[in-house]
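Attaching the record inline, Q. Sequence:
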Amino acid sequence: MPAALTLDAGHLPQPLIEQYWRDGFLFPIQAIPAETALSWRAELERIERDWLAADLPHPINTYKRMLSNVVMTLSAQISADPRILDVVEGLIGPDIMVFGAEYFIKEPQTRHMVTMHQDLTYWGLGATDQMVTVWLALSPATPASGCMDFVAGSHKNPILPHEDSFDEFNLLSRGQEVAVDVSDAEKTAIELMPGQISLHHGLTIHGSGPNTSDDRRIACVIRYVAPGVLPDGAEKDYAMLVRGADRTGNFMNFAPPARDFEPAALALFDEIRTHQAAIKLRGAKGRSSAFA
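Structure, as predicted:
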């Protein structure tokens, strides 16, 4: 397990900023105390238990796997945590919006995986440098539990062709995989302990294998974007302002939920989900259950 990188009063020092722009990723950063991350895991698992059989418009897994910050107060709290925002600010500036927060969970001894891909392929935001993904470990992420693998320097490519599989064991919405060969020698295993984060560029090629361990592999994954990013197409997209100001109006801003799964938040979730599904599934030859 690599040693945690050293921050400067909670912020990225210049050498680490330069390392991020060289490699397209950065890890491990102890942004959150381990005990806090473990308490967030306990809260998430309480929500899973309490709402599993609730009369929600969609299964609880749908809300965990996309736009969870729209309907879950825990996700909104995590994505607005100033300790995480202090780190993100060093890469995209002082004005920060949440494009989405979700939970990637691999149950123990399961085959679920993520094929090698670039995040920005289907998001309708172009090949922007002003988006960064924070991957926060709520349980240990190791090669045995299916931690991510990154390809250093791959963010310097444009958006590459991808192929869709819609495989039932693929955690991606389309089962998308970059149409280039990636050898094991090119991969860096992103091992993280609870409370540690990794950062990666939206063009960095990455994926992860199955969880062969006896514990759940749980991550809260947050996509941060600068307000100046211009969504593709004529329609605006949605984002939640968490620091600074939005002076551009490129996104329709929304407030975090006041309580879990409140009616207004559920309606907003469906509104955003429908809008983004049309973008993410543009040109797809199959249909993902994530958007069914």
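Residues 287-292 have pLDDT under 50 and may be disordered. Residues 34-51 form the longest helix (18 residues).

More tomorrow.
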